[in-house]
Amino acid sequence: MKHLDEYRDPDTAKKLLAAIKSITTQPWQIMEVCGGQTHSIIKHGIDQLLPDNINLIHGPGCPVCVTPLDAIDKALAIAAQPEVIFCSFGDMLRVPGSQHNLLSLKAQGADIRVVYSPLDALNLAQLNPKQSVVFFGVGFETTAPTSALAAYQAKQQQLDNFSLLVSHVRVPPIMQALLSSPHNQVQGFLGAGHVCSIMGTHEYPSISSTYRVPIVITGFEPVDILHGIYCCIKQLEAGQYRVENAYPRIVKEMGNEPAQRLMQQVFDVVDRQWRGLGSIAASGLALKPEYNHWNAEHRFAVTGINPQEPTQCRSGEVLQGLIKPVQCSEFGSRCTPEHPLGATMVSSEGACAAYYHYRRPQHV
Predict the structure, then answer these.
(1) What are the structural domains of the chain?
(2) What is the per-residue pLDDT across 30-63, written as a single tens digit (0 to 9) for each?
């Protein structure tokens, strides 16, 4: 494996940029389906270095950003219970719900703790048998296996004071939903490398052939992204539409099969709401009925929460790639990382946050 610095090498990046410019003869629109890739693109100015007729569209690849409002409100309702220790990844604490967020609830005295893994929450449950410990499981297929492992271990141990609030989502269905939209602008995809490290690449050929779009799996470093763009443009210019793995040091065709088997054992594939995007068929993961005892939605009876999305936030349009963050009138004024109107301004992987930190209007 090459040293990581080689994937940040300026000379290699210059050669790839020259190669991209040499083969590009017409306008192309490419979407990256990963918030980490979006962050890297904006931080390093990759989109500004490309030929003017290549437009990078930022997709719904930030797991925090796409977690639906009803899941946040369910989390708030559970975390407010006096006997609960509510555990979450840190970037979820400031995501706005209908009225407030987990951080403000913590300031009011709720026992809300930042953990780095659902197994940390499982350990807390073992150490605090008189309290109910809940883990907020969010994210794509990258983080779902560890949630599945926590649920599996809780069942094996019959750990009655542990449960999960699950809001995991799947990447292939959202790609299909975007391509099926009448507003679709996407002509090629940069696939999310970390998701494919778990799930492999075998789900993508049918999408590529059905919708006639190249899908190039790539990583997160500048050279990775430029190589992915080059491969995608090369296919588009040749009228080819296939799945290409440009991240072979991490991604294998079949992915991590033990992780997939564990997910299949614990989760069912379900329809899922995406924040700002609505319901997407077969795009979510939910605990199987035999895990209902460890399902926080059932345990705390929060299944009937159905809030309305705030109208002043245009994050849904950002997540679909219909607008850039700077095209929102609230960007950088009423909506900032300190006072976000929507989730895309909260997470470090959110497009709005990336533009705020690296591409504010006065710097464009």
Answers:
(1) 25-305 (3.40.50.11740), 315-359 (no CATH)
(2) 999 999 999 999 999 999 999 999 999 999 988 8
